[in-house]
Amino acid sequence: MDFDDAEIGARLQSLRESVVSQATLANAMKDHGHEKWSQATVWAVEAGKRPLRLSEAASLAAILGAEVSDFLQSSAVGKVIGSMREAITDVDRAATDLTAAAVRFEDARTRLRLTVRSIDAEQVSSWPDSERVRLIDLMREADKRMKWDLSDVADLDDRTDLFMEDLIHSEGADDGVDPEAS
Asked: Could you point out which of 117, 120, 123, 169 has its C-alpha 20 to 30 Å from the C-alpha of 81?
């Protein structure tokens, strides 16, 4: 198999783009002992103007969460692997966002509980009827939301299971590999 510097560079660029900038990658390479790496070095390797050394490929693979062999795969394989890595990164970012949202959700429910508890029934009894009715309606809405938990808001496990079943049972997906066997 013939390895062309331009193809290797294109694979590096494909692996890098969804993860880090050229400047960030150059700094990470310096941290891995490749002191002469700069953004221009990353550009030159990606453009096929500079060959990639094996020790550099090992460091790049470690930084990008890849394998050295990823730089040597065919373009079609590289695209699929790059797409998978990008999708995994997206899921990781979404999981981080979801965790932060779950914390905000619980904080908001706690504030709601505290607000409900702080209502002075004696003071409310002196309010006009129309205002008490509005408060009662809001209390009902608050009660519903205080009973919610994250499974009421989004049941992600069921969605994932359905997607995987569709993927496994779709036409042409029977390649003789049992996804449950791994």
From this structure: 169
CA atoms of 58 and 49, how far apart (whole Å)? 19
User: Widest CA span of the chain, in angstroms?
Assistant: 87
pLDDT in tens, the chain (182 residues): 567 899 899 889 988 987 899 999 999 999 999 999 999 999 999 999 999 999 999 999 999 988 898 888 766 776 777 778 778 888 988 999 988 988 998 999 999 999 999 999 899 999 999 999 999 999 999 998 888 877 766 655 555 566 666 666 664 544 454 545 54
**The one-letter amino acid at 9:** G
Last residue of a domain, one of 75, 99, 131: 75
* Same domain, yes or no: 9 and 39: yes
Local structure of residue 51 (DSSP, 8 states): P
Task: Please report, for the chain, how many H helices and E strands are present, in that order.
Answer: 9, 0
